[in-house]
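Quick one: structure for this chain?
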Amino acid sequence: RATMLASLDRNDATDQRLILSGDEDWDRVDELRASVDAIMVGANTIRRDNPRLGVRSEKRRAEREARGLPANPLRVTFTASGSLDKEAAFFRDDNFVVYGPPAVPLSIVVEDLARRGVKRLMVEGGSAVHTAFLTQNLADEIQLAVAPIFVGDSRAPRFVQDGQFGTDRMVLGDIQRVGDVTMMQFFPDADRYWLRVCVEESRKCPPSDTAYPVGAVIVGADGNEIARGYSRETDPKAHAEE
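Got it. Here's what it folds into:
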């Protein structure tokens, strides 16, 4: 599954790079990069922005290596044409994977990454990749950073392109102020989100030799949480559902 980062720095139709993120938000992104197994961008993003897709902080790179991981996450892209500049920063070392040409279905890419040990994938764009993940229900989480600036250009890139998206409302998670940027967390699949909350509740259960740890959450028809609990929360024989 994938965590999608929607923090765009090129948000108009010109060749000039429009910087929307501040230092605090860049540090947040760097911390997120250090926590994942792989980072994915589309081929057009490599051609247009030449991103390095690495962890900037020397301390965070050292912490990854201390855990037996590469200093930087695996870099991933896919291309139908194969027309990528071999001098691009994406190819600076051998810690990368390219799918295609020809075009490879995204579901196959995700399955192959899982076989390679990628448990958490960070998708940094662009809009075509975001669209593919969301329309195919392959994203677990969206982190959307909103900067305090208007872009008055209808040709500017958007977070997603045209597509058939789910009609259910997403679950709103954390909202943070990061410098002068607002970061909002969304979970596209509400059922999967609440199941994850149940698992986290179950981790609070007092240990028992005769019973499983169980977590429960009651959610109203409007999508809002009503109550939550876990086994043995108030009594050694109490069930999470109670």
